[in-house]
Amino acid sequence: MNTVYIGLGSNLENPVQQLLTALQELDNLPATHVYRASSLYSSKPVGPQDQPDFVNAVACLETELDAHTLLDALQALEQGHRRIRERHWGPRTLDLDILLFNEDFIKTERLTVPHAFMHERGFVLLPLSEISPDIVLPGKGLITDILRNIATDDLQILTNTE
Hints:
Helix content: 25-40%
Structural class: alpha+beta
CATH superfamily: 7,8-Dihydro-6-hydroxymethylpterin-pyrophosphokinase HPPK
CATH topology: Alpha-Beta Plaits
Number of domains: 1
Radius of gyration: 15 Å
CATH architecture: 2-Layer Sandwich
């Protein structure tokens, strides 16, 4: 069984509902169970500012799927939510990122784990620390230590997912 952390984000077409639906869909993936999910957080966009604020969360999954099969499933869920990749860091109906896959380091053309920028992003670290406060990010350290140096002032809890 693999323990996987997934970052969820949306800023189009009712983002709160997009994430709540995506959490249910993640739980319905083959041989997969959503073990924990963070609250939903509102955050400013990274990159172009001419777009709506994002809603973000992190989910912890237990799955028998390997990393690339899970990636394929996540991309299929994104497409089911009509995700269109028009511009880098642009608006989206649903974004699902594999943040951590066990304690593995994965570097392929399609997938980099741990997620390359997660240690710099409050909208990833704060929800991740909510569900796993003792987690150590490979090569970076304890999440609570990393969070001390990351701005989280613009994050607001919108709703609890439990």
